[in-house]
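User: Hi! I'm working on a homework problem where we have to compare a predicted structure to a textbook description. Could you give me the structure for the chain below?
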Amino acid sequence: MEALNVIHKRASLKACLTEKGISTETVTQILDAARVAPSGRNNQPTRFVIVTDKTLINTVVKEAFAEANALVAGAPVLIFVCANPKDSIVRDGQSYYLFDAGLAMENMLLAAADLGLVTHPMSGFDEAKARKILGIPEEVRIVAATPLSCPAQGAYDEAAKERLAGRTRKSLEEIAFWNSWEGK
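Assistant: Happy to help. Predicted structure tokens:
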């Protein structure tokens, strides 16, 4: 599948999860796509905690996730995207580890969509509780998490169809400015 097609067909589908297992090879392929994402000065501050133990998934979801994200307990894999701020570049007082982790997360989401798997990037969790449950060091931030699952409806395109039909985006005229903020 071409990159532009995957970008336009990717959707957040936590309501379409199944418990069907995903091979370690497939998870590794998705993580490898995240690994090769760009990062400031190639510092690569992003790390991943992959949770496949069903008891641990249930515990972290019950103890640390917002109620709106409780559905992800049904996924066979939860991936936490983490980064250590000390590994970040800082330019003009701005730290870039969150940006770097976001780039890695997007590569992961696109790779999963390309492979026909369901994801749903989330920040609705208690970071301190998740960190404690997963044994993540205090200095490491949990930036986001996503379930990884086969779609409940059979094929990814079928699962994403309704979600994509209702998705709205601002027009380019609202968000893109040529040559200056005023776009003149």
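For your comparison, note the following. The beta strands are 46-51, 77-83, 90-91, 94-95, 141-148. The longest strand covers residues 141-148. Good luck with the assignment!
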